[in-house]
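REQUEST ID: PR-0412
SUBMITTED BY: lab tech R.K.
PRIORITY: routine
TASK: structure prediction, single protein chain
INPUT:
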Amino acid sequence: MDNFQLRFAGTGGQGMMLIGDLMAYYYGIIDNKQIVLLKSYGPEARGGACRSELIVDEEECYPAVTCPDLLLAMSEQSYHLYTEDIDENTIILVDSDLVKDADETHPNTYKVPMTAIAKETTGKTICANIVALGVMTKLLKIDPEDMLGVLKTKLPARILDINLKAFQAGYEVQS
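STATUS: complete
OUTPUT:
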């Protein structure tokens, strides 16, 4: 793997920083790669655009995403703000219930109702980020057992079971 760049975008409170932390742990600890994790928050605590970006490489890497290989967009606002530097090879994963204007002509767009799946599976929409993690694990061909290990290591026991259900539901989505 040469330089691989990921961007996780949404609004404050959707767990995009947690997704960045979990993926950074996977690539840096489990996969033993060099990583750079960047986080950007809007001025609002909740409701404003936010993103976390992860650069993965075999060697030291430039500390900024120049063209994401994968973009997760969990809100309409974040989709429009953070698609400026994508190309035809970028995998775009959007929450289809929250991002209505995703470019239908882009060859690698995946529209998944992650918030609805989280609500249906766990009873909580807050788990949509972990549903997204399950979908990304499948799209990126990450061993799901490795990612389950990350969740078991990084998440508190009191929320682990519900998040394991959300992850499994995301992983099982037909993409």
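NOTES: Strands lie at 4-11, 34-41, 49-57, 70-73, 91-95, 109-112.
REVIEWED BY: pending
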